[in-house]
Design brief:
Layout lengths: L6 E13 L10 E17 L5 E3 L4 E3 L8 H13 L7 E7 L9 H16 L6 H16 L5 H5 L6 E3 L6 E2 L7 E6 L6 H14 L1 H23 L3 H17 L5 H12 L4 E5 L6 E6 L2 H13 L4 E6 L8
Parallel strand pairs: 3-5
Antiparallel strand pairs: 1-2, 2-5, 2-6, 3-4, 6-7, 8-10, 8-11, 9-10
The structure holds (3R)-3-hydroxy-3-methyl-5-(phosphonooxy)pentanoic acid.
The site of (3R)-3-hydroxy-3-methyl-5-(phosphonooxy)pentanoic acid (PMV) has 18 residues, from helix 4 and helix 5.
Organism: Alkalibacterium kapii
Protein name: Mevalonate kinase
Keywords: ATP-binding, Cytoplasm, Kinase, Lipid biosynthesis, Lipid metabolism, Magnesium, Nucleotide-binding, Transferase
């Protein structure tokens, strides 16, 4: 967070959920990876106008912003009232390189960067857990019942093994291999998918509950495959998680098609990542060469954008 007296900045990055999405809402573990290829910066400056916002999505008075940006007003009011600060004239500038609504944690990253910039503007310093309290609050407005994983990974330098209500564990991915990330180009529908899983648990408990528990077991299996540098078991585990997510109805045709294409192109495993029903998928490859060949096939199949992420080390698109 680098700020001058005139300009206050907050930064965060996107994320990829390796495994455990949806089940993590119900107390099962998940593994998430910081995705620094996709980052966001929020800069707050004092102006002589009422609060304004400038972003790719909207530019103008915050009071007239579309409802999708409500969470920023709520955060602004909550932080001002908690710390007895008056909201005076500020300009909020958001530069985001995280595609929105793609399961990459865009909203949590914007909230995290915004909260950091605002606290710097008010000259308040908080512990990480207190910062996360505000990001969780905005995620609740956006997603209804978030697990908290997005909030935590957007400011983490390390991959995380996360269980709701527990302290999150750093999980260095000491495993060779590459992840190919592909965007379907369709906006995901996290809150609807999360709500539909809740509905399935209410109406079809005997079917939905074992699927949730199974995803939890697969996440533990993935964790031990990572410890044992067993890329093949990790791959198979990711594909099994996709099948369970599909049965929970959070996949869609585009995601299933890209998963199939990646497997046919030699991926060790593939699955959707994040909320699903659009957004992104991931595929596991043994080498960069293999990852590039999978990437090529995914683009040919219609993926809107792809990234190659090396698991061991932090380089992305080297
Ligand atoms: O689609 P995203 O990036 O918001 O990821 C959602 C992950 C879920 O497990 C589906 C929901 C959650 O809050 O953990």
């Amino acid at each position: 967070m680098k700020s001058t007296s005139a300009s206050h900045s907050g930064k965060a990055h996107g994320k990829i959920i390796l495994i455990g999405e949806h089940a993590v809402v119900y107390g099962e573990p998940a593994i998430a990876i910081p995705f620094k290829a996709a980052s966001v910066e929020v800069i707050i400056k004092k102006t002589d106008r009422p609060v304004t916002i400038t972003s790719n999505y909207y530019a103008g008075a915050l009071s007239k912003a579309p409802k999708e940006l409500n969470y920023l007003s709520v955060l602004l009011q909550k932080i001002s009232s908690d710390f007895k600060k008056t909201i005076d004239h500020i300009d909020i500038n958001i530069t985001s390189h995280i595609p929105p609504e793609r399961g990459m944690g865009s909203s949590a990253a914007v909230s995290m960067a915004f909260v950091q910039a605002l606290l710097s503007y008010f000259d308040i310093s908080l512990e990480k857990e207190q910062l996360l309290y505000y990001v969780d609050l905005s995620e609740k407005i956006i997603h209804g019942n978030p697990s908290g994983i997005d909030a935590r990974i957007t400011s983490s330098e390390e991959p995380l093994f996360y269980k709701k209500g527990y302290v999150f564990e750093s999980l260095p991915l000491n495993i060779s291999g590459y992840l190919v990330v592909a965007d379907t180009g369709e906006t995901g529908q996290t809150s609807r998918a999360v709500a539909d899983v809740a509905k399935a648990l209410k109406n079809n408990y005997e079917i939905a509950e074992p699927l949730i528990r199974h995803i939890g077991e697969l996440t533990l299996k993935a964790k031990s495959a990572i410890f044992n540098n067993d890329l093949y078991t990790l791959g198979r585990t990711l594909s099994k998680a996709h099948e369970s997510l599909k049965q929970l109805t959070v996949s869609n045709n585009s995601l299933d098609q890209l998963v199939k294409t990646a497997l046919e192109a030699g991926a060790l495993g593939a699955k959707l990542t994040g909320g699903g029903r659009g957004g992104c998928m991931i595929a596991l490859a043994t080498s960069r060469k293999k990852a590039e060949s999978i990437e090529h096939k995914l683009l040919k199949q219609g993926a809107a954008k792809t990234w190659i992420h090396r698991l061991k080390g932090e380089d992305i698109n080297e």
